[in-house]
């Protein structure tokens, strides 16, 4: 009966958390610019779901955006986007023109593709400044991922509300600045990658407890909890670093749908293990096994940047460092507080068990959406 009540409670949480479910991947656009002797050309990929929210593409209101609806709004899409992008070469503003649009698929859905032609006074500019304001008034978390090719080299940058205007020396790319950008991207990705955070928290919740006498009891020393946390974080780091590298280098490729579904399933299983402990002292093995899957999820971020070979190592190392710094920040906040509360019924019942049920329920919603390619919320 107790198990049935727990399952009923779990299903109730799933239903209750439907309004809170969010897609895993944040709002991004992909801006590519190529500087050559003949001028500057580019391509701008913008998610249709974001454009629908901004200017309304779904004319019939059926929850799906078809090609006909996009085609009739090409002029509106171009006007909206170009009003929020400015490029200057050697301090002089460039005129930006958009060509015929197409639709392309990214890891998180359909994007409109705007071919760009930039008319600049400088024939061979030495500096290029990009001012990016797309969706700035609607989504403070939106980012523009810039891929800039010039002088035979490629550099990347993350544009958004935190850094809308950036300037680039075209003759000599600053590798250190690029590295810092990738670190920032890694930190940002782990902090807004809610499924990654919930997976980590599901593994960390029992770190200040020990399973004894068929129930969770408080550990005696902070050192014991810290050792457990180090094992979990290290295993997760090693595992996702392996698959992040393999996937980014193109050695192993897996369908995005199945990777995202497996990530959601890993969160469900990690959380339910806190309710019905099966792995107890071997949670680091769970972190390693499922960390391999999470690495493929991290790789999708770098894959969408379309990085050339000469930027892969820099991107891999910087992004991975950023992910680890983001994880360490979470652990640094969680562990002291959890250790201080570990003996209380509040921690064991509300934080540990209640939190685990909530994490499992939310991840179950993500799993259903990703596995069956459905939108339970209608957006």
Describe this structure in words.
The chain is of the alpha+beta class and 379 residues long. The chain folds into two domains: 2-23 and 193-372; 28-174, no CATH class. It is built from eleven helices and 13 strands. The strands form three sheets. Strands 1, 2, 5, 6, 7, 9 and 10 form a seven-stranded mixed sheet that branches. Strands 4-3-8-11 form a four-stranded antiparallel sheet, with no helix packed on it. A two-stranded antiparallel ribbon has the order 12-13. A hairpin with a 2-residue loop joins strand 12 and strand 13 (215-218). Helix 5 packs across helix 10 (309-341). The longest helix is centred in the C-terminal third of the chain and has 33 residues, at 309-341. The radius of gyration is 23 Å and the shape is elongated. The two termini are 37 Å apart. Mean pLDDT is 83; it is low at 6-24.
**What is the rounded distance between the termini?**
37 Å
Class computed from helices, strands and strand pairing? alpha+beta
- DSSP summary, beta strand count: 13
Helical content (DSSP H or I, runs of 4+): 40-55%
Our count of domains comes out at 2
Shape: elongated
Strand content: 15-25%
Mean pLDDT: 83
Low-confidence stretches: 6-24
Number of helices: 11
Q: Nearest-angstrom radius of gyration? A: 23 Å
For the sheet with most strands, the description reads:
7 strands, mixed
Pattern of helices and strands = HEEHHHEEEEEEEEEHHEEHHHHH
């Amino acid at each position: 009966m107790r198990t049935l009540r727990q399952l009923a409670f779990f299903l109730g949480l799933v239903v209750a958390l439907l309004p809170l479910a969010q897609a895993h991947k944040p709002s991004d656009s992909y801006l590519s610019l190529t500087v050559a002797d003949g001028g500057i050309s580019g391509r701008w990929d913008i998610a249709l779901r974001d454009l629908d929210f901004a200017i309304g593409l779904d004319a019939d209101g059926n929850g799906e955006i078809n090609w006909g609806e996009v085609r009739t709004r090409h002029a509106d899409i171009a006007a909206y986007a170009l009003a929020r992008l400015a490029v200057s070469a050697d301090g002089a503003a460039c005129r930006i023109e958009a060509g015929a649009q197409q639709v392309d698929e990214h890891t998180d859905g359909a994007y409109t593709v705007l071919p760009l032609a930039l008319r600049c006074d400088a024939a061979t500019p030495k500096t290029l400044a990009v001012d990016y304001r797309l969706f700035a008034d609607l989504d403070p978390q939106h980012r523009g991922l810039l891929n800039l090719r010039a002088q035979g080299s490629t550099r990347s940058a993350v544009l958004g509300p935190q850094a809308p205007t950036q300037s680039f020396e075209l003759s000599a790319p600053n590798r250190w600045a690029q590295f810092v950008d990738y670190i920032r991207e890694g930190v940002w990705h782990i902090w807004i990658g809610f499924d990654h955070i919930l997976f980590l928290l599901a593994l960390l919740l029992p770190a200040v407890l020990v399973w004894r006498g068929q129930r969770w009891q408080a550990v005696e020393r902070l050192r014991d909890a810290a050792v457990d946390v180090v094992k979990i974080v290290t295993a997760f780091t090693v595992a996702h670093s392996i698959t992040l590298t393999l996937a980014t280098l193109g050695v192993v490729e897996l369908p995005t749908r199945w990777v995202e579904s497996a990530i959601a399933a890993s969160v469900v299983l990690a959380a339910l293990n806190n309710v019905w402990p099966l792995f107890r002292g071997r949670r680091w093995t769970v972190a390693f096994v499922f960390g391999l899957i999470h690495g493929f999820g991290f790789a999708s971020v770098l894959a969408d940047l379309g990085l050339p070979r000469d930027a892969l190592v820099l991107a891999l190392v910087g992004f991975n460092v950023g992910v680890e710094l983001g994880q360490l920040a979470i652990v640094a906040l969680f562990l002291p507080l959890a250790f201080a509360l570990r003996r209380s019924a509040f921690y064991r019942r509300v934080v540990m068990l209640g939190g685990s049920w909530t994490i499992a329920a939310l991840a179950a919603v993500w799993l259903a959406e990703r596995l069956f390619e459905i939108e339970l919320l209608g957006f």
